[in-house]
Write a structure and sequence with these properties.
Number of helices: 9
Strand order of the largest sheet: 1-2-3-4-5-6
Order of helices and strands: HHHHEEEEEEHHHHH
Structural class: alpha+beta
Oligomer: single chain
Number of domains: 2
Shape: elongated
Length: 368
């Protein structure tokens, strides 16, 4: 059955309506719990008003919704299939000679389109909001409403100079060498605890040695003073290679369109890009994961006889399957991060297993 046919358009409208309804309900519940949790955390703070609480809850919500997005699609598909089964529309379609696969094509097409839109349009907004949430969280912890959390692309890293000052370092490029880390186009900004800038150093190159940065072609800027130029300068630091690796940008804070450049940046640096590659491949395959969840929903809800198992079978089967899918995906994802299995296999395995099991069960029901 084509998605552009009369019944195909009807199914597409049903799945889209149910998806938006379920998504709205989940958003409301998540928003309520987030507000309650943030209110609990800010109950003893006079500097956090209701607008700050709402801002934190709204910016954190996309990250939470992303975790349950496949389950939202599965519930929407179950509601759609249960409705057409209850009203005997599925029986009429089968009597007309349409197979279960012809019935599922419009729904799968709409689901795949939702997944593509989520990756291409929603994900960049969600990544930006996650970055805002991290900044708000940092301001809340430091009790400074003007504090800035640097988390743009490239290498950004912070270090405490003393009890009153901090240093922020940014490098446009980074390469690992045998005896240290070579950075290009380095900027070092010194600020106090109130995020007020002090001295700024710009260097063409920097080499990280034990306890210091060896800066080359350095320009030093101070407020109200002329620029100072030096051929070289040793800048004291407590940073090391492991500390720099731990301060790379979180993959969740990078949009889908910027991840390839970020991965290339870290690969050229000589560091592991497993977490970023997993994130990128997971976003690429997410439309197929949504389609797999629709197939799972069809196994439980797409039945000519709605009295077989009833609504309880539908609910229990769907919830159990959702937990199994989440546990399996997280387990395989952990194996991928630890390097026990290849990155591509870690991403594809959960979706492939779920799809194969669902297709096998639908084939069995179709033949039966």
């Amino acid at each position: 059955m084509k998605p552009t046919s009369i019944f195909g358009k009807y199914l597409v409208k049903q799945i889209l309506f149910n998806f938006l309804a379920v998504l709205l309900m989940v958003l409301s519940v998540v928003m309520l719990f987030e507000i309650v949790e943030i209110l609990r955390r800010t109950s003893d703070r006079n500097d956090a008003d209701i607008w700050f609480v709402l801002e934190m809850a709204i910016t954190k919500m996309p990250k939470t919704i992303e975790m349950v997005f496949p389950f939202v699609m599965m519930i929407a598909a179950m509601a759609t299939f249960w409705k057409v089964s209850k009203t005997n529309e599925y029986v009429i379609m089968r009597a007309a000679g349409v197979s279960v696969w012809g019935f599922l094509i419009p729904v799968l097409a709409a689901t795949f389109s939702i997944g593509v839109l989520n990756v291409a349009l929603v994900n960049p907004v969600a990544a930006y909001m996650y970055d805002l949430y991290e900044t708000l969280e940092y301001r809340f912890e430091t009790k400074n409403p003007k504090a800035v959390l640097f988390s743009d692309q490239g290498l950004w890293i912070r270090e405490a100079i003393d009890n009153d000052n901090i240093m922020v370092l940014q490098a446009k490029s980074l390469r690992q060498e045998n005896d240290g880390l070579l950075m290009r186009k380095v900027t070092i900004l010194e600020m106090d605890r109130n995020s007020q800038p002090g001295r700024r150093l710009e260097a063409f190159a920097a080499n990280l040695r034990e306890g210091r940065f060896e800066l080359k072609d350095v320009c030093i800027y101070r407020a109200g003073m002329p620029k100072e130029t030096l051929n070289s300068l040793d800048y004291k630091t407590n940073l090391d290679e492991n500390r720099i690796k731990d301060n790379f940008v979180a993959p969740e804070a990078i949009s889908f369109w910027k991840l390839p450049d970020t991965i290339r940046f870290y690969e050229m640096s000589g560091f592991s890009v497993v977490r970023h590659s997993l994130r990128y491949l997971s976003l690429l395959i997410s439309p197929l994961l949504l389609c797999a969840m629709v197939l799972v929903a069809a196994v439980f809800a797409l039945r000519p006889n709605t009295r077989k198992g009833g609504v309880m079978f539908l609910i229990v089967g769907g919830i159990t399957t959702g937990f199994v899918v989440y546990f399996l995906s997280q387990l395989v994802y952990a194996f991928g991060i630890n390097g026990d299995i290849p990155v591509g296999l870690a991403v594809i395995t959960p979706t492939a297993i779920i799809s194969l099991i669902a297709v096998s069960m639908l084939l069995h029901l179709e033949d039966g």
